[in-house]
Amino acid sequence: MFRRSSYASVAAGQSGQANAPVRSGAFAHLVNTGSSHAPSAHASSASHSRHHSRSLDADGHHHNNMSRSWGSSGLLPSCSSQFGYPGGYGGTTQDATPSFFVPSYLRGSKHAEKLEEVHTARVAAYREHRSTHSSNAASLSTSSSSVNLHRMSGSHRGLTHEIVERAPVFADEPVAPWPTKWNEADKYAQLEIEDSGRQAKFAGTQKPTDEAASVRADYPMPRQCGIYYYEVTVVSKGKDGRTIGVGFSATKIALNRIPGWEPQSYAYHGDDGQAFSGKADGTPYGPKFGTLDVIGCGINFRTGTAFFTKNGHYLGTAFRDLKTDTPYYPTVGVKKLGETLRANFGQEPFAYDIDKMVQAEKAAIQAEIAQAKADYEYSHPSDETSLIQSLVGQYLAHDGYVETARAFSEEVVEEAKSLSDADTDIPYIGTEEDLDAINRQKTRAAILDGDIDKALKHTTAYYPSVLRDNENIYFKLRCRKFIEMIRRCNELTAQCRPVPTPPSKRSTASTMGKRSSTATDEYDFEMELDEQLGVHNGAEQWDDPADHMDDEDDLEDKEARLAQLTQDCIQYGMELKSEFANDPRREVKRALEDTFALIAYENVRESALAPLLEVAGRVPVAEELNSAILVSLGKSSSAALERLVQQTEALVNELADDGGPGAFVNVRRDFLQ
Amino acid sequence: MSSSTVSVSAATPTQHPFQRKVDEIKPSKADINFVVMDYLISEGYPKAAEKFAKEANLQLPAEEESIQARVEIRKAIHAGDIDTAINKINDLNPQILDTDAGLHFALLRLQLIELIRACTSAADSDIAPALNFASSQLAPRAATNAGFLKDLELTMSLLIFLPADNLQPQLAELLKPSLRREVASKVNEAIMTSMGTRGEARMRSLIRLRRWAERQARDTGKDLPPTLPLGLQDADEGMHDANGNGEAADIMVQ
């Protein structure tokens, strides 16, 4: 069982952090007898689902599941909250939401999105791992070292690697998780942590010699949230005591003292209603509190202040000038035996309307941003308009939207003219399409049509250095060509071997015969084929009268073509293989494996590799080639508008990292959608 | 096209750490196309929007319905034909001007400016139409609002100073085309809002966010390069007005 915890901490990407200890992991509930409704059945149900999860992963990975699953992750039923954030996989059944929660007030925030992404990637990596080791029943011991495994071994099938590799590298840019439970390893010894870490109880029979017993949560309150807030319910204040402290403290602050009395420890006390900041003398703050009261504690990192709430009422600012570089952990402390506190880190709705406070904060920031416009426009009235016109015009030209660029330029000029005497003010948006723009557009269009040969021909003819200097793009194009060939093979196969039509259709088909045929069986078959073609290919197919002169020939023709195409396909595959066989790069090997695996399926569309065939896969290849051509021409690979978005995101990130105003801005959600 | 094009690496040896963070961000083309389409539709570039829908394979948004009317209204205001503009706005939705007294006043004042401009252009022309318009249309509104009154007084003083070569700046502002542009864009926003959509193009919010974020970051002493150019100049040699262009890029630096 002990290996479990090492897995959990590795999974959390924070192995160096304070939560290294025993039993903090995903399966803590299995060994924790105190947890009454831990569904140990989950472990076994998870094992049954492994075969499903493989195809799910393949899908999810190619459809960018990370963002799609976002919406559904909101408030989880409280039972799933038993699995803390760092290792919630224990509860992942085939269609269950992974045990990851987003506190209501952080929904839609950039930080929550980042954490969600990290979590989803981890779940995918874990599931994928599990499914590739399906020979072992999901005994707990198999998965214990799972997360480490995928980084080292190189012998699995390509797809697995693909998924694992795409998971963000957590070490590079850790995304600070939020607290999920009380930390078993960071508590006063006589405190018992129950209910998967949500409840802390001063247990035992011995009257303790120390004056108090405190516990910290597993993670500090992340500054990147802007405002962080949690609540504690006083389940029982014990026989005769009520010195209960709720607040936050830095790591390593003594746990045998009530929070608030030590330096870097801040708390609101139930016995006198005072607020304590690092010393034994408090200041009058709020009402007293006791059994069944719900106490909330929040930090506004932007303003460096902290506040408390009682039973849903805001009690005002308690502390100011908090250090923004100290990580503060939610901390509670009690003095008497039997005293029990239950935390809500966002797994459940809060008593206080913290969402409203965060909304107000966001609105204030938005107003400030709007003000930036007013200030600016006062001194430069028309520059913003011309700046936008330049940005749009340049983007359209840069990305090869030639026709749009021309239409836009005309409309801008027309607008300028209608402002009668203003012609001189307005810069003419130059979109004289140079040859390059047209060439690039043609190349892009070819790839988007799946005509890779044409794209290669164009590129070699006009920009010979590009493919030479960008071998990876060349490689991708070559792989894409193979994929396109498989696509065509598949289409033809589907036409030659149509799925049987339902009986009702079959009878209509045979009664509306339009010509005589010798073999009825064959006749039926061909009619179905016609239907198939009609459905799948529509007008295009009917355009060619030769196709319908004799369907028998047509079918033979198709089969012949299919055979030829398959032959070509294999031929090309071998060429491709020999060309890149000696390439030492892992990603090349992997991509080749993936691509060649396509040929193994008669109907790829129903296989796990179907996403590779998606038409959408052409877009990134086209964009990459376009960028490479631009760079080869000495132009910037991205348009100014794109750069503007990049800079904006990066600047807002800077403003969010220390809990500043950027924490309340989600560029994509608030400004790009 | 010469094949000997030397591809120069964009990365300079002394790249600022912030620049690296910028480069790491990969905006989605779909988002950018969305912002562009939103801009074309909301600021009234119907032909470009149509072409863009085709070339980028996008749906034309629903706001497209009003686009023709909005373009015509914009044209009328830009050309100083306020009567036509007001009629067209009322055709579209009479509520817009009824509920926004400030906007209505701004339009009427623009009309007064045009009348004054017309009647002071020749020495022997009659200023009666301007006076009548002011007393019948603007004066009653100005009576209820101090800001309107001040604007009206200022506008009327044009009658005394025109024609003139050296107007004081406050008066010269009134004759500049930028005032028409400003009013036209306010009208456009009001129409968009009346249709239940965001009044302002996301592009404008985005630019403002960019400006705000940079100012905040510099004010709080974040480690940024001295300038953050957008690269409008190098990528588009077709721009005629290199000067205005450079300024545009500098705007973001501020």
From TrEMBL, chain A:
Domain (B30.2/SPRY) ranges: 160-350
Gene3D superfamilies, alphabetized: 2.60.120.920
Region (Disordered): 1-20, 32-71, 129-152, 498-517
Pfam families referenced in this protein's UniProt entry, alphabetically: CTLH, SPRY
Record-annotated CTLH domain positions: 436-493
Compositional bias annotation for Polar residues: 1-18, 504-517
PROSITE patterns recorded: B302_SPRY, CTLH, LISH
SMART domains with a match to the protein in the record: CRA, CTLH, SPRY
Name recorded for this polypeptide: Ran-binding protein-like protein
Species in which this protein is naturally found: Massariosphaeria phaeospora
UniProtKB/TrEMBL annotation, chain B:
UniProt cross-references to PANTHER family, sorted A to Z: RAN BINDING PROTEIN 9-RELATED
Source species, domain of life: Eukaryota
The name this protein goes by in its record: CTLH/CRA C-terminal to lish motif domain-containing protein
Residue span, CTLH domain: 66-123
Record's function text: Involved in the proteasome-dependent degradation of fructose-1,6-bisphosphatase.
